[in-house]
Amino acid sequence: MNYIKFPATFCTVALLATSAFAAVSEQEAARLGKDLTPMGAEAAGNADGTIPPWNPEGPAVPASFVAGSDNYVNPYPDDQPILTINAGNWQQHADKLTEGTKGVFEKLGSAGFEMKVYPSRRDSISPDWLYKNSRANATGATLVADGLKIEGNYPGTPFPIPASGAEVLWNHLVRYGSDHTLDYATYYVGSNGKPVLSTIGDLTNVFPIFKTPDEPVQDSWVKLRINYSAPARRAGEILLVHEPGSDFTEGKGRRAWQYLTGQRRVRLAPAVSFDTPNPGVAGTSTYDDSFVFNGSPERYNWKLIGKQEIYIPYNSYDFVFQTKVEDALGEKFLKPEFIRWELHRVWVIEGDLKDGARHLYGKRRYYVDEDTWSAIAGETYDGRGNLWRVHYVYPVNLYDIKSRYDFAYGTYDLLQGIYNINTKPIPGKFKNGVDRGDKYFTAKGMARGGIR
Asked: Residues 16, 110: contact at Cβ < 8 Å?
C-alpha cells in the first residue's frame, strides 16, 4: 500500500508518544481550523481532485426532507457512479483498497461482488462547542496507564492531531454521537446463501459524555439498551451497556447487564466484551467487532501505520434509511446497487495481540475516517495470520442536527463464507432524541421492564 509520508517532526513525536503519549505543541494545535479542519482532518482536497476540500457548511438539506421526521433522504440524488470496481479490474485499483476488500474480491469477485464508486463528499460537520473542545484537547489531553486512560480531555475529539495508533483508536472510541432510538432487524446469510433472522430489537443510545460540554469528561461515552422481541427464543431479553468516556483501567471500563427471561432477573454480564461471540448476530462475529471495534484496547499493541486514500462505504442514505434489510441481502454479499463507496483519506492503525493475552484474533487493522474519526472499515486475522473477517460501517450524516449515524455495520467471514448486517434501522423506525429517563438505563430499570 502507498501511505502518506509524515514529516520528520511527526515521526519524532510518534516515537515519543509510544511511551509518553504527550499532547502536541501550541504551534501544532494552531493548525486546527486552518490547514487542518477543527477535527484534525486535512482541509484541502487531494492533488488530483478526486477527494474534495472539506465543506464547513455541511450538506444542503434536501427539499424532500420533512424536518423532524428523522426519515433521512439522500442529499445527493443526482450523483451517479463514476467508477465500478469488479472482478475484472480490482487489481488496477488495489492501492486504494483495504486489505480486507482485496480479500473480498479474491473470495467473492467471481460471484459478482463489485463496488460502485460515487463522487466523494466531505460534508460532515459538528457543533461549534465540539470544535472548541477538540482544540483544547490537542494541547491538554494525554494518554496514561499504558494507553487505557485519557486525562485532561473535554467532550470532543481527544487527539485531533494524533501521534500514535492508540490515540487514533481513542478518537474512534469516543467519537461524537447524538441520542437516538431505532427498531432494527439483524440477519446473517449462511454459506448456503439463505438469510437467517438473528435479532429484532429496540435500540436506544444516549451519550452522557456530550451533555456537559463545558466540563472535563467524567461520564460514560454511551449508554446503550436493547430490548429484544425476536426470534422467539430471545423475545423478552434485554441488554444494557455503559461504555466509558475516558477510562478503561481495571474496574473503570465497560459495565454490562443482561435480563434473561428464563432466569427472570438482571445479572452483571462481564462476558459482553472482547471475543465472546455476539448472539445479536447469532455468533457470526464477536462483541468487540461491533461498530468495527469497540471496548477496551488493552489486549493489543496498537501502532500507527500512516494515512492513505481508500475506497470506503460512505453516504449510503438509501440503504440505511429507505431500504428493508431483507431486500439488500444477496447470497454472498450485500447487493452492490445498495452500497455507495467513496474515496476518502483514512488513518490506518494495527493492533497485534500482546504476549500472554487471549483473543480469537491475532491481528486487527482499521481504517479511520479523517473527517469523523469513525472506523469505517477493518479486517481481523486469526492466530496463524490468515485473513478471517472483513468489517464495514455504513455511515451517514444527520444533516439537520450536525451529527451522524455510524451504527449500521456488518462483517464478511471469508473463512466460513457467511456475512451479517446489524443495527440498520427499519425504514421509518429511526428517531433522534430519547424520551426515556435515566432510570431506563439502570439495572433496576431493566428489571422493571423485564417480562415476568
From this structure: no
pLDDT in tens, 315-335: 999 999 999 999 999 999 999
- Domains of the chain in sequence order: 8-449 (2.50.20.10)
Q: How far apart are CA 411 and CA 405, in angstroms?
A: 18
Residue entry with cell 487471549:
358
pTM (two decimals)? 0.95
Cell of 249: 483501567
Q: Looking at 141-213, list the stretches that DSSP marks H as alpha helix, in order from N- to C-terminal side.
A: 165-173
Dist. CA 334–CA 411, nearest whole Å: 11
Closest CA to 171 of 206, 241, 221: 221
Largest CA distance in the chain: 63
Looking only at the bridges linking them, the beta strands covering 425-432 and 396-398 are unpaired
Query: Which grid coordinates are listed for 143?
Result: 494518554
pLDDT above 50 for 108: yes
Report residue 352 as a C-alpha cell.
Answer: 497485534
Tens digit of each residue's pLDDT (9 = 90 or more) over 145-161: 999 999 999 999 999 99
Rounded Cα distance between 394 and 85, Å, is: 18
Q: Which three cell numbers stand for residue 446?
A: 431493566
Q: Annotate 397-423 with DSSP letters as a single string.
A: EETTTTEEE---EEEEETTTTEEEEES
